Amino acid sequence: MLGTAIEEAMNEQIKNELFSAYQYLSMSAYCESENLPGFAQWMRAQSREEMEHAMKFYDFILERNGRVALRALDGPLVEFGSPLEVFEQALEHERRVTAMINDLYALAVRENDYASQTFLQWFVTEQVEEEKNAGDVVETLKMVGDKSEALFLLDRELGQRRMEEQPAG
Ligand SMILES: [Fe+2]
Ligand SMILES: [Fe+2]
Predict the structure, then answer these.
(1) Rounded to an integer, what distance in angstroms lies between the CA atom of residue 17 and that of residue 35?
(2) What is the Å distance from ligand 2's center to 99 Cα?
(3) Are 39 and 24 in contact (CB under 8 A)?
(4) Burial 27-64 (b: 16+ CB within 10 A, else e)
(5) Which ligand places an atom closest to the C-alpha of 91?
(6) Among the ranges given (66-80, 103-117, 150-164), the one the predictor scored with the smallest mean pLDDT
(7) How far apart are CA 126 and CA 52, in angstroms?
(8) How far is the CA of 13 from the centre of ligand 1 (A)?
(9) Shortest CA distance to 10 belongs to which of 129, 113, 133, 130?
(10) How many angstroms is it from 98 CA to the middle of ligand 2?
(11) Nearby residues of 148 by Cβ (< 8 Å), 6 or more positions away
């Protein structure tokens, strides 16, 4: 049985992961409006990954005989100044999510909830990759600057991202 505090925090994290999906989908829509289909594809794949993250928490709560209770989402950012700003926002967002996952892990330690600690380890590792992925694009976009040919090539490269199969966790 899942403890009340962990159940509450994991329900909150379902919301946070769904908000991430919502935010990335909004970023994808912005990239479409800027005629950057590759950037849009990357963000769309990212949005689907966040949806999967939400479902991992959803299924884990159910497996532990907890109660899933969905909550209202805030509106995502809609307007951005540039592709660089989109990815800077994405990086900032992932850093906030990392802090949330760390808080959740700390709670599981305080509650002596070993199953939750093991479950959360996948997310701890995932966040390292999430920050790196967004950070790498930020660095590349800084080098691209206002060179439209380089932006075109980067758009093509990012468009090759497909939905990766996530290992079970
Ligand atoms: Fe996530
Ligand atoms: Fe993420």
Answers:
(1) 27
(2) 12
(3) no
(4) bbebbeebebbbbbbbbbbbbebbbebbebbbebbeeb
(5) 2
(6) 150-164
(7) 12
(8) 9
(9) 113
(10) 9
(11) none
Looking at residue 161, its pLDDT comes to 85
What is the rounded CA–CA span in Å between residue 147 and residue 59?
45
If you measure from the C-alpha of residue 15 to the centroid of ligand 2, how many angstroms do you get, rounded to a whole number? 13
Phi-psi region of 116 (alpha: psi -120 to 50; beta: other; left: phi over 0): alpha
DSSP secondary structure code for residue 3 in this structure? -
Distance 149 CA to ligand 1 centre (A): 32
Q: What is the pLDDT of residues 103-135, one digit of tens each?
A: 999 999 999 999 999 999 999 999 999 999 999
Distance CA 94, CA 99 (A): 9
Ligand nearest to the CA of 94: 2
Note the ligand closest to the C-alpha atom of 95: 2
Quick one: residue 112, left, alpha or beta (phi over 0 = left, psi -120 to 50 = alpha)? left
> How far is ligand 2, taken at its centre, from the CA of residue 94, in Å?
6
**Residue in 21, 87, 17, 42 with CA at minimum distance from that of residue 9:** 17
Q: What's the CA gap between 6 and 8, in Å, rounded?
A: 5
- Determine contact, residues 3/61, Cβ cutoff 8 Å: no
Euclidean distance between CA atoms 167 and 169, whole angstroms: 6
